[in-house]
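Bench notes, afternoon.
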Amino acid sequence: NESKMRELGVEKTAFDSDDAGAVSHEVAIQMAQGAKFQSDSNVSIGITGIAGPGGSTSNKEVGRVHVAVIAGDYFLSRRMDFGDNDRLDNKKSFAAFALRLTLEALDRVDENEAVVEEALNRDASEGSFDTSQLDPSSEEWEGSLEWQKSPRTVAEDIGKVDLASLTDWDSEE
C-alpha cells in the first residue's frame, strides 16, 4: 500500500474503509489516475487484487480483482472474481481482464475533438475526483470526469449496467 501512495498518490484513507480497502474500485481508480498523471498519458490502468495464495478476507476471496481504466475524460472500473486459482493463473487473468476492459473503455471514449483537445491541454494538477459517493460494494463504476475551474473534479455515478453479461469474453474477434 505504501508504494501505491508514494508512486501513484493513492490517498491513505482509501485503505482505511471497512467496505473498500486496498482491493476496491476506489483504490483502482486512484491508481489509474496517478498513473495517468505520472506518465502524462491519455489512457491509464489501475489493477488491485488478491492473486493468492494468501491475502483473502471474509468478504474478499483469492481471485478478486478491481480494474479501473481512464481514457480521456471517461473512466470505467469493474470487479471480477476469477476463483481460487494459483497465483500465476490469477495474475494472467487479471492482466487479460484489464486489457479487455481497456479496449471496452476506448470504444466508449467521446470522439468529440474539442473534448479530446481540452483533455490533452489540461494541467495535471486539475485532475482529481471524489469517489466517496459511489457504492463500494458495486461490481462496476462508470462515468465521465467533469473538469471544473476549481482544482476538484467530480465523478458522477451513471447507474448500474451489467456490461459483463453483454460482453463475450471468449470471442476471438
